[in-house]
Specification:
Strand order of the largest sheet of chain A: 7-6-9-4-1-12-11
Helix content of chain A: under 10%
Number of helices of chain B: 7
Number of helices of chain A: 3
Structural class of chain B: alpha+beta
Oligomer: heterodimer
Order of helices and strands of chain A: EEHEEEEEEEEEEEEHEEEEEEEEHE
Distance between the termini of chain A: 22 Å
Helix content of chain B: 25-40%
Largest interface: A-B, 37 and 37 residues
Number of strands of chain B: 12
Largest sheet of chain A: 7 strands, antiparallel
Shape of chain A: elongated
Radius of gyration of chain B: 19 Å
CATH superfamily of chain B: Cyclophilin-like
CATH architecture of chain B: Beta Barrel
Shape of chain B: globular
């Protein structure tokens, strides 16, 4: 492992700023660990790509902005994610979606995110150093592990970064940037628990045509939608529980849309790995980033059913958009350090 | 990347390779844990739920879920419910939800009780709380959301910091295939036990053992009929009770 040293000191931590890596802590679901990792894995990977990092390097997820850092070592960074963010360095505006050089003594500030979009990603060339716990640096507050002491950042935390060679400054072309909105269309595949013995065809049509409001209680564990009573194909869940959404407890997929009684929940990276609720649909991998950018209490979602082929096509598009080979190269004085 | 077809084929192969369930002999420890019924931490979770999420929930009565559980299972009183919980070993079928949560099923079929889940779910549950959803009893290992009806609290079953020696090799106390028995203590005693765990002074009662499925099935064979009668009575009670 290469050397690391202090790069950013937290002056204002923001609502929930965490160290994450992608794809997080995989392989422990049978012990009750969901992977953690970024909720918007697309913007996260683009930030890492812009500073020449490996996709697996740790970077920051910043929820709603409102944070400030003192730069402790000359560094190369990139900020991606929500619109209307207001990033500045010593009071001068800093562009997003491109490589930026910052110098020791600078103060880097993220104003409140106005949106559309909800979260920002800040990658530092070299990657953030944090202990690797069970194969990942991703912060997982529920289990108290990852990042710094398993928690969101607080004032006074010092983020270390690994040593790194000079980076080629780049910018993400406008056409490759994610389209943020407040009226989201999220791609899903049906199931695993939406067969006709559980959910009626009319319910499924209802699910895929209705406009779902994102509830204020949404977080990294799950995006909660407004209550709605489906018809259901059966009156009760029997011994699994009286509500027709209740089934014998079983494993959940990341991005599953679980019917927790009369409330739909899109399972997030800090969510439960298992429970006794029907999972009506699963957000396809290439659509999952949107669940990190919906604004609780304001945005709305429509679900669009896609085939496996279309899901794979979307995944190829995401792979293309996270490959820095497709980004614009900037003159080297944009990130000389 | 594995194709969908190759994944399904691999799963089929794995499934085919499984031995008949009756022939299995598994490593299975006997773990005895203290439980304080109707304790203040589970009541606090219920109180917050009623105050912030659903004031008119039919599963909340007198600040707890216990009277609802009693009625839903056609039992006489809370004491009868506690005796059902205490009178059987609970089999950890698998671990999930959050780190180290055991999904426990009763090995004595006469102790098969059920409960519907919260609707909507609860936003806060204290670590160590014990609840039931469907036919599963669970111990909440960490502070978390939840949907099970709560009825008591036990000692820690997860500690990533390894403050107690029982967690030094593995932050999860209960493994799939382990059997859990509860013994009743007062809340004062439980809080004392929980503190002793943090100070590494508590003595977890864990005994290595094996579990032969065929032996178990033979043992419970005479209980199947009485269990069926109880199940019918409980089903009738269930149908009379409002669901959240």
């Amino acid at each position: 492992m290469s050397e690391s040293w202090p790069a950013l000191e937290v002056l204002v931590p923001g609502l929930e700023t965490t160290i994450q890596d992608y794809p997080g802590r995989l392989g422990h679901q049978s012990r009750g660990f969901f992977p953690a990792g970024p909720t918007d894995d697309l913007a996260f990977r683009m930030a890492n790509a812009l500073v020449g990092n490996d996709m697996a390097d740790a970077a920051l997820e910043i929820t709603t902005g409102r944070c400030e850092f003192r730069v402790r070592a000359d560094s190369v960074v990139a900020v991606t994610g929500a619109d209307g963010a207001g990033i500045s360095c010593n009071g001068r505006a800093v562009p997003m979606w491109r490589t930026v050089a910052i110098a020791e003594g600078d103060v880097l500030t993220c104003a409140a995110v106005r949106g559309p979009g909800f979260r920002l990603y800040l990658a530092v060339a070299g990657g953030i150093d944090a202990p690797v716990v069970m194969g990942s640096r991703a912060t997982y507050p529920v289990g108290g592990i990852g990042g710094i002491e398993g928690r969101a950042l607080i004032r006074g935390d010092v983020l270390r970064r690994f040593d790194t060679a000079p980076r080629v400054p780049r910018r993400v072309p406008h056409d490759l940037r994610p389209r943020l909105t407040s009226e989201w269309e999220i791609e899903v595949m049906r199931g695993p628990h939406a067969d006709p013995s559980l959910l009626t065809e009319a319910d499924w049509r209802d699910f895929t045509t209705r406009r779902w409001r994102v509830d204020l209680s949404s977080d990294r564990g799950g995006v909660r939608l407004n209550p709605h009573r489906f018809t259901w194909a059966r009156a009760s869940g029997g011994v699994a529980g009286g509500h027709p959404s209740n089934i014998l407890d079983g494993q959940f997929p990341l991005g599953g849309v679980a019917a927790e009684g009369d409330v739909l929940v899109i399972l997030g990276p800090d969510g439960p790995t298992a429970d006794g609720f029907c999972v009506l649909a699963t957000v396809v991998e290439a659509g999952r980033w949107k669940t990190g950018q919906v604004r609780p209490g304001r945005d709305a979602i429509r679900f669009r059913e896609v085939s496996l082929d279309e899901a794979l096509t979307l995944a190829r598009r995401v792979a293309y958009a996270t490959d820095p080979a497709h980004y614009e190269r900037l003159p080297s004085h944009h990130a000389a350090r | 990347m594995l194709s969908q077809r190759a994944l399904v084929a691999a799963l089929d192969e794995l499934h085919e390779a499984q031995r008949p369930v009756r022939s299995l002999v598994l490593a299975s420890r006997n773990i005895t844990l203290p439980i304080a019924f109707d304790d203040s931490a589970s009541r606090e979770a219920v109180r917050r739920y009623a105050a912030t999420t659903r004031p008119d929930a039919p599963n909340v009565r007198h600040g707890s879920n216990i009277d609802y559980l009693v009625e839903y299972n056609g039992l006489d009183d809370p004491r009868a419910f506690y005796d059902v919980v205490l009178g059987t070993a609970w089999w950890n079928a698998y671990t999930g939800f959050f780190p180290g949560l055991p999904f426990l099923y009763p090995l004595d079929p006469r102790h098969a009780i059920t409960a519907p889940r919260y609707n909507p779910t609860r936003s806060w549950t204290a670590a160590g709380t014990v609840g039931i959803g469907g036919p599963c009893v669970a111990i909440y290992p960490v502070e978390s959301v939840g949907s099970y009806q709560l009825f008591g609290r036990t000692v820690p079953v997860y500690d990533h910091l390894g403050r107690h020696a029982a967690f030094r090799d593995d932050p999860l106390l209960i493994r799939p295939g382990d059997r859990v028995r509860f013994h009743e203590v007062t809340e004062q005693q439980l809080l004392n036990d929980r503190r002793e765990v943090l100070e590494n002074r508590y003595s977890y009662d864990i005994r290595d053992d094996r579990f032969a499925v065929a032996e178990h099935l033979d043992q419970i064979a005479p209980l199947v009929e009485p269990a069926q009668r109880l199940r019918t009575a409980r089903e009738q009670a269930r149908q009379r009770t409002a669901v959240p």
